[in-house]
């Protein structure tokens, strides 16, 4: 039995505890490379209330639009009127281990853990390097995801691919 493709782009939610860096990267990257096929969102279980300035700087350096990016609660996506989600990806171990809300649309889920660049202490070069590394890892995983033949895979095969992508590093690109 094949997935029934929605008559709209797939809705994807990237989750992290603070929704200030990694999940923001996910939203920005997928909205750029998945235009027409995906619509990406981000949220956090305990949002910081502001996007990390280093995350914004990383996106701006690479020419990503940052207007409209904001730190928000995952509750926005669990209430009536929220978009039906097709995929939910947790990006930090804390969010992966929390009890998530019930998502509209019964989305497929996977954990794509990425080290928290905001937790890195050091000089500006070390901090910028941690944000660049997190961005590149997410970009690689999202490229693999965006190139999956989602509409033609059965649910079990698709889940296997999603889980494999979560184990992908910048050096290993085979899925």
Walk me through what this model shows.
Strand 3, helix 3 (93-97) and strand 4 form a beta-alpha-beta unit. This protein has helices spanning 22-33, 53-61, 93-97, 124-146, 155-166; strands spanning 10-16, 38-44, 87-90, 108-111. The chain has a single domain, classed as Rossmann fold (3-Layer(aba) Sandwich), CATH 3.40.50. It has a four-stranded parallel beta sheet with strand order 2-1-3-4. The protein starts with 9 loop residues before the first strand and ends in a 9-residue tail after the last helix. The protein contains five helices and four strands. By secondary structure, the protein is of the alpha/beta class.
Structural class: alpha/beta
Task: Let me know the largest β-sheet.
Answer: 4 strands, parallel
Mean pLDDT: 89
> What is the H/E order?
EHEHEHEHH
Q: Which architecture would the CATH scheme give at its second level?
A: 3-Layer(aba) Sandwich
- Rg, Cα atoms, Å: 15 Å
In CATH, the homologous superfamily goes by the name: Response regulator
As a percent range, the share of helical residues equals 25-40%
The domain count comes to 1
SS field, number of helical segments? 5
Tell me the fraction of residues in β-strands, as a range.
Answer: 5-15%
Termini separation comes to 22 Å
Uncertain runs: none
